[in-house]
Design brief:
With 465 residues, the protein is an alpha/beta fold. The protein is 34% helix and 23% strand. Strands 1, 2, 3, 4, 5, 6 and 7 form a seven-stranded mixed β-sheet that branches. Strands 18-19-20-22-21 form a five-stranded mixed β-barrel. The chain has a three-stranded parallel β-sheet with strand order 8-11-14, with helices on both faces. It binds 5'-deoxyadenosine and iron/sulfur cluster.
Length: 465
């Protein structure tokens, strides 16, 4: 969770507070909503109390995420009453898409509802809201129209910028709402992506994170100036983006094993700017469960892919997502998942208890697993991942790594950055490092992060875009 707000109140402007739940695609969308609303005079403020418009950019992936939205709306309703109606409330994101009508029915304080493919229409919607005429619900799937309509300028929140290149999903894993909330797979064109990457570089971005629900399903026609022509995959796009001056590091997330093309794996070997990090969700290590999930690959297929990735880039850090307690998951199936984790060796992982989602095939499957079993499996899986994270992070102690500092740490003057392997790195007295790359000597490790100290005179010289 994060928020795309900043304390910039100026007389005559309207306060905007965007609260973001869920994935990085939502973080990107929140930033773009801020860009869309800027010409209307909306400027980010620090708190919802100071805002004229609060946008909840919501997540529908698990039940808990959805519940949070309704409880937050309850709080906002009171705030709106206290503001004498000045405060307006918008619900965006995947809950808006899936349950828009329901939101308007259950919480009359909500002024407008906008899905993840429709937020470029916010200005018209706000005008209609002010006139009290017309529709306050927009949930069309029009990814292409959205990207064309978004402002060409981008504001940065730090040296690392998200760039959405692909949206939606056609894979229909049986547990997942994404194909219903984000619609069919859509890839943005090369020229639009490169223009946005250049704009980000011009504004000072040093790292670009290419985003998509299935980012490695991205494909697009080669640009006209490419003599070889044909169809590009993500690997070629990465090679192309790597040529943009000022962009020093490239990441991409999240990938599907089925779309792990040779060209992308080779990019890990060839493209120096491509971070040695691969987030490749596997969800389960049991072939029976993978089949029931409609993942369209086996555990062995997955292990072969990561072996190829390690051949291309031996130091690559691997991350994954896991679901425990999918319907019908037996003790043996779960043991297979633990066995896959042991064989693969992950640097980090996200793990979740299966949460039945309305309208998905798995929610109607028999043999739903009880909460107590899910809790126990999750704890065992997380302990194993923690051990692996510890091994991975400890191996960095005593080494020097290049860290891009993007945030303040929790302690005074502490800076937080990320290593090429996506490890959070804390440095004391590092406030001057903010927004920059620096070479850091790692002096300590936990299962989830590193501490380090600045190597004298190792702050990388600024490279102009
Ligand atoms: N229940 C639990 N976890 C889920 N995920 C997606 N849908 C569900 C669900 N219904 C997890 C998957 C996915 C991540 C983004 O969220 O692990 O990779
Ligand atoms: Fe959901 Fe599966 Fe698509 Fe990922 S690949 S977004 S888990 S349906």
């Amino acid at each position: 969770m994060g928020d795309a707000s900043k304390p910039v109140t100026q007389p005559g402007t309207k306060g905007l507070f965007i609260k973001t739940y869920g994935c990085q695609m939502n973080v990107y969308d929140s930033e773009r909503m801020r860009d869309v609303l800027k010409p209307l005079g909306y400027a980010p403020v620090d708190t919802p109390e100071a805002a004229d418009l609060v946008v909840l950019n919501t997540c529908h992936i698990r039940e808990k995420a959805t519940e949070k939205v309704f409880s937050e709306l309850g709080r906002l309703k009171d705030m709106k009453a206290e503001s004498g109606g000045r405060l307006r409330i918008a619900v965006a994101g995947c809950v808006a898409q899936a349950e828009g009508e329901e939101i308007l029915r259950r919480q009359p304080a909500v002024d407008l509802v906008v899905g993840p493919q429709s937020y470029h229409r916010l200005p018209e919607m706000i005008a209609r809201m002010a006139r009290k005429t017309g529709d306050v619900l927009e949930t069309d799937f029009a990814a292409e129209e959205k990207f064309d309509a978004l402002p060409k300028t981008r504001e940065l929140d730090g040296p690392s910028a998200f760039l959405s290149v692909q949206e939606g999903c056609d894979k229909f894993c049986t547990f997942c709402v994404v194909p219903y909330t984000r619609g069919a797979e859509y890839s943005r064109g090369v020229d639009a992506i490169v223009a946005e990457a250049r704009e980000l570089a011009r504004k000072g971005a040093k790292e670009i994170v290419l985003l998509g629900q299935n980012v490695n399903a991205w494909h697009g026609a080669a640009p006209a100036q490419d003599s070889a022509g044909g169809e590009w995959g993500l690997g070629q796009l990465i090679r192309h983006v790597a040529k943009i001056g000022g962009i020093e590091r490239i990441r991409y997330t999240t990938s599907h094993p089925r779309d792990m093309a040779d060209d992308l794996i080779e990019a890990h070997r060839d493209v120096e700017k491509l971070a040695p990090f691969l987030h490749l969700p596997v969800q389960s290590g049991s072939d029976r469960i993978l089949k029931a999930m409609n993942r369209q690959h086996t555990a062995a297929d997955y292990l072969r892919i990561i072996e190829r990735a390690r051949l291309a880039r031996p130091d690559i850090a691997l991350a994954s997502d896991f679901i425990v307690g999918f319907p019908g998951e037996s003790d043996k199936d779960f043991e297979d998942t633990l066995a896959l984790i042991k064989e693969a060796g992950f640097a980090q992982a996200y793990s979740f208890k299966y949460s039945p989602r309305p309208g998905t095939p798995a929610s109607e499957m028999s043999l739903q697993v009880g909460e107590a079993v899910k809790d126990e499996r999750l704890a065992r899986l997380q302990a194993l991942i923690r051990d692996q994270g510890m091994v991975f992070n400890k191996a960095a102690v005593g080494k020097r790594v290049e860290v891009l500092f993007s945030r303040d740490g929790k302690l005074d003057r502490q800076a937080l950055g990320y290593s090429p392997y996506m490890q959070p790195v804390h440095v004391a007295d590092g406030a001057h490092l903010m927004g920059r790359f620096a070479e850091i000597e790692i002096v300590g490790a936990t299962s989830q992060s590193l501490t380090g100290r600045l190597v004298e005179a190792a702050v990388r010289a600024e490279v102009s875009a």
